[in-house]
Task: inverse folding
């Protein structure tokens, strides 16, 4: 069943990384009740800023498998395309209303914007970084405008993340998640922004003329 709530759909893109990694890799050594809250933005060694206007492709890679998600923003307008280029491609479009498009059937449904869309404004940077409890940041390299950081996950030593932060865009462009066992460090999966642009054609937020409107019941 496809999620009908756009906020849940948006957050699901980032939570996919948890699924790919597996529960055992990122299990905290403490219970959730005893886990400290994630660090505030001021505690990160880089600024957290999302452009008001941008488009990019989010690529989640595990092993030889990749999932492609297109993301665009222009002020309050948002668009997210899941499984781009496949028969399962679908789109969440937030403009004057909330729209859900299914490409295989060339259909769309709509409903008024709701108050819970306020949480939809969670920044791209915040979702990429705050999705995990990162700690013990360490700068390990620089290449042009990109600064590479290493950090622990859930304050443990069994996993770590490499963050590639681009100062020119003000965004973490890539994250690599590793499991650590003894002296062995194994890449589990990565999340990367590709083809980032700070301009978006207005047509990106329009519904194609070949799509037909259906009732909300067809959203399931």
Result:
């Amino acid at each position: 069943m496809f999620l009908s709530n756009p906020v849940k759909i948006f957050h699901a893109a980032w939570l996919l990384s948890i699924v790919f990694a597996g529960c055992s890799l990122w299990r905290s050594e403490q219970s959730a009740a005893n886990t400290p809250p994630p660090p505030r933005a001021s505690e990160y060694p880089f600024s957290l800023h999302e452009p008001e206007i941008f488009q990019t492709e989010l690529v989640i890679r595990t092993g030889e498998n990749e999932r492609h998600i297109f993301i665009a923003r222009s002020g309050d307008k948002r668009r997210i395309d899941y499984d781009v280029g496949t028969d399962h491609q679908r789109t969440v479009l937030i403009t004057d209303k909330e729209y859900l498009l299914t490409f295989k059937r060339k259909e769309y449904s709509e409903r008024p914007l709701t108050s819970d869309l306020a949480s939809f404004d969670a920044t791209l940077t915040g979702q990429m970084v705050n999705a995990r409890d990162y700690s013990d940041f360490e700068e390990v390299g620089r290449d042009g405008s990109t600064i590479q950081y290493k950090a622990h996950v859930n304050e443990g030593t069994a996993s770590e993340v490499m963050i590639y932060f681009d100062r020119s865009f003000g965004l973490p462009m890539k994250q690599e998640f590793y499991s650590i066992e003894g002296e062995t460090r194994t890449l589990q999966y990565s999340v990367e922004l590709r083809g980032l642009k700070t301009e978006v054609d207005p047509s990106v937020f329009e519904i194609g003329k070949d799509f037909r409107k259906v009732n909300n019941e067809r959203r399931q």
